[in-house]
Amino acid sequence: MTTEAHFKKPLLYISAPTACSYLPDQSSSMIFIDPDAEMNMALYGRLIRNGFRRSGGFVYTPKCSQCQECIPVRIPVLDFQHSTAQRRIWKRGHSFTVTERAPCFSDEHFRLYQHYLTSRHPGGGMDNPTPEQYVSFLTADWADTAFVEFRDRQRLVAVAIVDYLDDGLSAVYTYFDPEYARFSPGKLAVLWQIQETLKQNKDYLYLGYWIRHCAKMQYKTDFTPLQAFRNGYWQSLAPL
Question: Number of C-alpha atoms within 13 angstroms, CB side, residue 82?
């Protein structure tokens, strides 16, 4: 059986500073894995446990000279406790049908993705994506990924892209029909992923990066307890 010790260490690079997408007046740099390096889910699992993340097949972690606001976070699902609001969201979402699909292009998915970006992230740099950009953003040929559909009868409400790791699940991205915003489909997707992680007898749901002063990321702290990767190890994130 192959173990992590047998993997050849991939080369790491650091990007040149660019304008930060999340915090005004900040610059952003990242450490990233050699794009030509051989990657698989076992190695990626080791990397994500050390604060890395993927965008498509691009594996990276923020490394900014004057800012450490991007903090990897995960939910230890055995300790998770629903809030009153989350119980309401879960109850409202019970009428939806949830189906896991292969990570491949779908016209129906792509139309919803376009509608979501136009409504929720206008001018955010992701406007008018091509099908090729959509697929390259969400999938990697080495990743164990599912596109999880949420449907109200036949109508597609949301799609959550999920990676399956040895020790848990990783929430890659979720997009949804803005007309269903009252159902909080983004939070509903996280709640479903928590339940799926428990169902598979795994320990963690990785939520990517949390930025304290970025409003779009504040929903992550609604899921408690939450662990943060700081100074080389995972530790509890104190309630805000």
Answer: 15
